[in-house]
Amino acid sequence: MPMEKFLFLDLDDTVFQTARKCTSLDQATPASYNLAGEPSSYFLPKQRALLNALAEQWRIIPTTARTQASYARVDLGVPCLDGAILNHGATILDADGMEDNQWRAQIGSPLSALSAALLAIKQAIERYAQQQALGILVRITTESSLDYYVEVRHLQASASALQSLLQVYIQPLLLDYSDFHVYLNNNSLTILPHCVNKSHAVEYCIKALEQEYGEIITMGMGDSLSDAPFMALCDYVMTPKHTQLHGCLV
Fold first, then answer.
1. What's the average model confidence in pLDDT over 110-139?
2. Looking at residues 30-43, what average pLDDT do you find?
3. Does this model's pTM top 0.85?
4. Which of 50, 56, 130, 230 has the fewest CB atoms in 10 Å of its CB?
C-alpha cells in the first residue's frame, strides 16, 4: 500500500498574508476574516494554486500560531481532516475539532506553573514602553483557561522598533527568566515558554500518525525561523521565497 503523506503547514505569510503585504489585490481571494466578517488576509494566485495542488496529494495539518478563535475564521478552501496545531503548538485539535486531551494534560501543568512569570514579563515590558513612550501593544494570549505566551506588536508595524526593543530591553530581561525564549518576525515579537513550540506538537502528532498508519511521509512548510524546528522533524521542507527563513537558507 502507498504511504500516507502529511503536510504540516504554517499559514500566515506562508500560504496567505494581510492586504498590507500583498503587491496587489486584483486577483487575490480572501483567506481569513476579522471579527466583523471582513477579509483580513488573502491568497495570491500562486499561493491558491499551490495549496490546491498540495491538497490533491497531501493530508494537510495546519500548524499555526493562531488561536482557536482566529483559526475558526480561516477559510483554506481545501480539506483539513486530520486536526490542527494552534497557539504555536500549545493546542492540538483532533479530526473532530476538539482539543487533544492527552496533549492538554501534558502541557497544562508546566504552563500553569509559568502563568505568574508570563504576567511579570508582560508588566515589565509595559512599564518600559511607557517610560520610553513606545507605541506598542503587549498582551498575553489565553485560551481554554491557560496562559500561553506574551506577544508584542508595534502600533505602526515598525519591525525595526521591535528589533531595537528586543536587543535593548527584552533579551536582557529574559536573562532572569530561563524558562522562556523569544522569536521576532516582522511585526510580531513573541515570548514563549520552552514547553510551547510547534516542534513539540508536530513530534507528538507524527508519533500518533505512525502508530495508526505505520511508515508515513511528512513535509513541513513555513516562513519564519520559529517554524524551522518543526520543519526539521519532517522528511521534506518547503518555504516561500522572500521570507525570513528563505533569507537565512539561500
1. 96
2. 96
3. yes
4. 56
DSSP class of residue 2 equals: P
- Domain spans of the chain, in order of start: 5-107+197-249, 115-193
Query: What single-letter amino acid sits at 69?
Result: A
CATH architecture label of 5-107+197-249: 3-Layer(aba) Sandwich (3.40)
How many residues does this entry show for the chain? 250
Q: Give the whole-angstrom CA distance, residue 73 versus residue 84.
A: 14
The answer to whether residue 92 scores a pLDDT higher than 80 is yes
Interior/surface letters 175-192, b for 16+ CB within 10 angstroms, e for the rest: eebeebbbbbbbbbbbbb
Phi, psi (deg, nearest 5) at residue 214: 80, -145
- Cβ count near 92 (within 10 Å): 27
Contacts 24+ apart (CB under 8 A), 46-54: 47/15, 47/16, 48/77, 50/15, 51/15, 51/76, 51/77, 51/78, 52/77, 52/78, 54/7, 54/9, 54/78
Residue 79: per-residue pLDDT: 94
Reply yes or no on whether the pLDDT at 143 is more than 80.
Answer: yes
Phi, psi of 231 (to 5 degrees): -65, -35
Q: Is the pLDDT of residue 30 over 80?
A: yes
